[in-house]
Design the sequence.
């Protein structure tokens, strides 16, 4: 779990793994990351990659589209066991998978598809 800070930089850099198949969303996240405040350490475009990236990078946040985790009931608990303190932010996709999520998921934050990138950035930054 990494929230790194330096003497020059007051606010820690939040490391996160993203899980999305949406190229537009990923490009937006990369652009936000370039502005500072968080760093993307891994990008998964398939559910099976998520756990591997979380184990490898030990991020503070997993930012995933809801459809990436809805059919994998053990994925989020396995990620949390592998990376204690991991925060999970789910992005609502075009289909309301949020309402069919397994009870084991329990996201720390849910970002609606109508939210702005600024709202997403604030939600990510509030987790560290």
Sequence:
């Amino acid at each position: 779990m990494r929230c790194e800070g330096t003497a020059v930089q007051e606010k820690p850099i939040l490391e996160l793994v993203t899980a999305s198949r949406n190229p537009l969303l990923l490009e937006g996240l990369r652009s936000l990351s370039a502005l500072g405040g968080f760093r993307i350490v891994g990008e998964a475009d398939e559910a099976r990659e998520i756990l591997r990236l979380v184990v490898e990078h030990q991020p503070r946040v997993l930012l995933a589209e809801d459809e990436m985790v809805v059919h994998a009931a053990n994925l989020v608990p396995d990620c949390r066991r592998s990376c204690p303190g991991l925060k999970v932010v789910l992005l609502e996709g075009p289909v309301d998978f949020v309402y069919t999520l397994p009870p084991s998921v329990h996201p720390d934050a849910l970002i609606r598809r109508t939210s702005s990138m600024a709202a997403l950035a604030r939600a990510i930054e509030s987790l560290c």
